[in-house]
Design brief:
seven-stranded mixed sheet, 12 helices, globular
């Protein structure tokens, strides 16, 4: 079969190479999946660089999120078990973590549902306890992670402020349903958020960016607000001033969604059932902006690594039309 593999760590566009390899053999408790679509995530870039918390042995195939087909013909979504990731014709996944793909979504959309929307749901509801009528601020609102949080915030009845970089991404954020859009390249984020909230600030802030975005969050978080730290796409890990959290009565909440696979897998299943229901009602739909041919996988991972993409890039195996 064809598979993209990383033989040495480095930039995705330089170290990912297309190989002819044997179809992997699943271990005990695992399933072999024929890949129908593979969604690109920022962790794929970190895996290539050797900077992710999981470091599979070299060579390995990246691709941490797929829509696939089981040997008995079921259409499913899964997070493949490395080193046999999703940027290949076949991947391997733990059977216990394989979930039915929602009928309301096509293969590419289903491939982009699991990690981003599960992360969003756990961040907004389990960690931050977002309430109807509250104000939610989402950084990188037009990106893959941010766009999911915007849709989930609207589904929860929140007023959503989206922060983006550039006019094109601002248009995307508006189409996603943001009530207020702030272009950080053209506006002062802090001043714009304070103006939009009458000086009160945002009740919940969803931050997959880190760096300057976190510094802005601390300035615009409301009394008893909650900042959800999701990741550091900017590459800069902030050091929060805890005295500031104390004097403003706000919470800083970490979210590592993958831990729920170990600590509370039943919650992931319940969340998936909720998300499937949302998809059926049209409340959520992954923003797939590019359906990338298999030959373009390395370039797609590199572009996600550089933060120049909007929405989701999904790689389709040769011959797939989803």
């Amino acid at each position: 079969m064809q598979a993209w593999r990383v033989h040495e760590n480095g930039e995705p566009g330089e170290v990912m190479q297309r190989d002819e390899v044997d179809v992997p053999t699943p271990g005990e408790g695992q399933l072999l999946l024929k890949v129908r679509a593979a969604n690109i995530n920022f962790p794929d870039a970190l895996l290539c660089r050797g900077q992710y918390q999981v470091r599979p042995p070299l060579p390995f195939t990246p691709g941490v999120e797929v829509c696939g087909e089981t040997e008995d013909g079921r259409r499913v979504i899964a997070t493949p078990s490395l080193p046999y990731g999703g940027l290949a014709e076949y991947a391997v996944a733990d059977a216990a973590a394989v979930l039915p793909a929602p009928d309301a979504l096509d293969d590419a959309e289903a491939a982009a549902l699991h990690i981003g929307y599960q992360t969003g749901w756990f961040g907004l509801h389990r960690r931050a306890a977002l309430k109807e009528g509250e104000t939610l601020l989402v950084h990188a609102a037009a990106g893959g992670v941010g766009s999911a949080a915007v849709q989930l915030g609207k589904a929860a009845g929140a007023t959503v402020i989206g922060v983006v970089g550039g006019a094109e991404k601002a248009d995307v954020a508006r189409r996603l349903g943001c009530d207020v859009v702030v272009d950080r390249r053209a506006e002062d984020v802090v001043a714009a958020v304070k103006e939009a909230t009458g000086g009160r600030g945002a009740d919940v802030i969803y931050d997959p960016v880190g760096g300057e975005a976190y510094a802005q969050s601390a300035k615009v978080v409301a009394f008893e607000g909650r900042i959800v730290v999701v990741g550091f796409a900017s590459g800069a890990i902030p050091s929060p001033a805890l005295n500031h959290a104390l004097v403003k009565n706000y919470s800083i909440l970490g979210l590592h969604w993958g831990l729920y696979n170990l600590k509370d897998p039943a919650a992931i299943l319940r969340c998936h059932e909720t998300l499937t229901g949302y998809a059926a009602k049209g409340l959520i739909k992954p923003l797939v902006t590019e359906r990338v041919p298999f030959a373009g996988a390395a370039d797609a991972v590199q572009r996600v690594a550089e933060g120049v993409t909007t929405g989701r890039l999904v790689v389709l195996p040769e011959g797939a039309g989803a």
